[in-house]
């Protein structure tokens, strides 16, 4: 469009939020990939800035949780661990769970935390929670390096299934992003979300086979466990790394369907609400 200013016609570009499924513009996100990288790297640097231990903090959370669960559940409660040392079993489950919990918790408040950026500059708003979820992959990689050390220490020899680990990491990433889209958009409208998330994460932890095997759930109810999208991620992650049992195909299928539903609905809700982010935030 053109505007007449001082007798001259000046070309003006008007930016409007896209509507409907046309809004799912992967090409636009690809054009802003450098911004995603910048914001993700900024989150990583800010997280460990002026800390004595630095990136080592990425290990302390899953390791401390592993020690606690090993003592109270593995030793005292005698929770089974599919024939594996309980410490290794727990750590293999806590690693992707910690990534998911931290990524969704951080991404849920990311839009409000970047309110100045949102109100002044145009870019796809999905970039902000996505960058937080991407940043969490750094901690996951550091924790994965320790897991590689623990495997031979506990006498576990990885098999060719190890090649499937990136698929389960990708599923964990998509799950975290799907949940983050819902929570971050809701947090802009209702600030109660940030207070509810810690409770939600704690309840979700015990509803997921992180510190206990899915085999503890009666087989007739096991498919319902897949309604928890992280159940398939955890079981698949363990199966590919520790090489125990049969592939959790049924659980993974149900979890993948649920993740797809959360992702589709979350993207629809996010894109519908983002038109008013700059006004509400």
What this model shows, in words?
Strands 1-2 form a two-stranded antiparallel ribbon. The longest helix has 27 residues. The protein is globular. With 281 residues, the protein is mostly helical. 68% of the residues lie in helices and 3% in strands. It has one domain. The chain is built from 13 helices and two strands, in the order ββααααααααααααα. Helix 4 crosses helix 11.
SSE layout and pairing:
Layout: E1 2-5, E2 8-11, H1 26-31, H2 33-48, H3 57-76, H4 86-108, H5 110-113, H6 115-120, H7 127-153, H8 165-189, H9 193-206, H10 219-225, H11 229-242, H12 249-273, H13 277-280
Q: Summary?
A:
The chain is 68% helix and 3% strand. By secondary structure, it is mainly alpha-helical.
Largest sheet: 2 strands, antiparallel
Radius of gyration: 21 Å
Q: Kindly report the spatial arrangement of strands forming the biggest sheet.
A: 1-2
Gap between N and C termini: 29 Å
Spans of at least 5 consecutive residues with low confidence? 20-24
Number of strands: 2
Element pattern in H and E: EEHHHHHHHHHHHHH
Number of domains: 1
Structure class? mainly alpha
Q: Count of helices?
A: 13
Range of strand content: under 5%
Task: Name the average pLDDT.
Answer: 87
* Morphology call: globular
């Amino acid at each position: 469009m053109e505007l007449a200013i001082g007798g001259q016609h000046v070309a003006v570009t008007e930016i409007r939020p896209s509507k409907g499924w046309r809004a799912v513009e992967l090409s636009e996100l690809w054009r802003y990939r450098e911004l995603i990288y910048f914001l993700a790297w900024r989150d990583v640097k800010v997280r460990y800035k002026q800390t004595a231990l630095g990136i080592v903090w990425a290990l302390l959370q899953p390791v401390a949780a592993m020690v606690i669960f090993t003592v109270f559940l593995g030793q005292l409660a005698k929770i089974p661990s599919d024939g594996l040392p309980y410490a290794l079993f727990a750590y293999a489950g806590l690693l992707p769970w910690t990534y998911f919990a931290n990524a969704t918790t951080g991404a849920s408040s990311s839009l409000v935390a970047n309110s100045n950026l949102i109100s002044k500059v145009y870019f796809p708003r999905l970039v902000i929670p996505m960058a937080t979820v991407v940043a969490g992959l750094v901690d996951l990689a550091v924790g994965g390096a320790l897991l590689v050390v623990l495997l031979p220490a506990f006498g576990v020899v990885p098999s060719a299934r190890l090649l499937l680990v990136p698929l389960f990491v990708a599923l964990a990433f998509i799950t975290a992003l799907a949940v983050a889209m819902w929570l971050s958009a809701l947090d802009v409208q209702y600030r109660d979300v940030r207070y509810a998330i810690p409770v939600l994460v704690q309840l979700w932890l015990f509803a997921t086979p992180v510190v206990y095997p899915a085999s503890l759930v009666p087989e007739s109810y096991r498919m319902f466990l897949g309604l928890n999208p992280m159940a398939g991620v955890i079981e698949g992650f363990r199966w590919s790394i520790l090489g125990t049992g049969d592939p959790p195909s049924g659980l993974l299928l149900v979890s993948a369907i649920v993740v797809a539903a959360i992702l589709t609905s979350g993207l629809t809700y996010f894109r519908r609400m983002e038109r008013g982010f700059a006004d509400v935030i």
